[in-house]
User: What shape does this take?
Amino acid sequence: MAGGQEHWDGVYGARSEDELTWFEATPNLSLELVRAHLRPREPFIDIGSGASRLVDALLDDGFGPLTVLDLSAAALAVSGLRLGPRAVDVAWIEADITKWEPDRCYAVWHDRAVFHFLTAPEDRAGYARALSAALRPGGIAIIATFADDGPEMCSGLPVVRYTPETLAQELDRLLPGRFEALEARRHMHVTPKGSRQSFQYSVFRNGPLRREPPPRRDGGHQLVGVRCVRRQGVCTRAPGSRPSPRSPRARASSSAPRPSRRAPCATASPSRP
Assistant: This one.
């Protein structure tokens, strides 16, 4: 990853967190997007969290389990000291995202300003491998980068600027057909010294959006323009649908055991600090 651990440890060691250009006292847009997609007791990870106060706010909201990942031990130490006793409620991972191998699956992946530092194709490929392995089917990835009119450099390093469209194209190139863009926002960040930095925030779902199935025969009922809703294994027939007799073959096939369709990600065991 651009800069390396020594570079980022030096950045966080040279200034207080509220003097860093990316400092947000309250990360309002990130909070809004995470709250829209994360449910209580679902696992969440903040990629390149640095000394971000997003984790503080999510703990205040009662979310968890929470994981934060950063290349810089100095950055993680700042957050841990700020949280005090609450730091034990967070899983802390010191790792390079382009080489990280996750050992559990997450419902929501949040990245504010890591991806745009990945100027080398092999680094973006490594990031994509981690994202693919860590995000569960149907999970949400929130990725924020400098927008096309944003800065060309940050913390002395070059960046790649994106529009929502070019970010979606790059993600599809790295992971073909895996992600569907749900929404995008433009955001103007004001640094502690008053400079303005243009960002784009994009939200993706891991897997295509669900389509309504065509009318079908299910559970002994012919469904016309409605879905069969199963409650405790019983198909509840909607008004207007017509019951039809079930053949012995249909009864036999419906009682046969079905193979598990659980994704490997769903069976990953949680990791705690």
Remarks:
- The longest strand covers residues 135-146.
- The CA atoms of residues 143 and 241 lie 44 Å apart.
- The radius of gyration is 22 Å.
